[in-house]
Amino acid sequence: xxxxxxxxxxxxxxxxxxxxxxxxxxxxxxxxxxxxxxxxxxxxxxxxxxxxxxxxxxxxxxxxxxxxxxxxxxxxxxxxxxxxxxxxxxxxxxxxxxxxxx
Length: 102
What we know:
Distance between the termini: 29 Å
Structural class: alpha+beta
């Protein structure tokens, strides 16, 4: 929940996190285990701008997308996103998106 606050600006209780998977972040000796979680947030939970911790060298831009925007993004020929993000999008589409589609 601390990472959500630092990177996205939302206050989320740890008990509200749903663990999706653990996976190796990259191939090779430097590939560490990453844990992927899902949380739903509301505007009332926004307490900051997010963007990461500057003194740790983080420069994160929060990008909110509608489901049609997400679909269009993932249909591009070239996607400028890491595989972990793309796995998270696939998981969301298979497990949660129908709840938000109209």
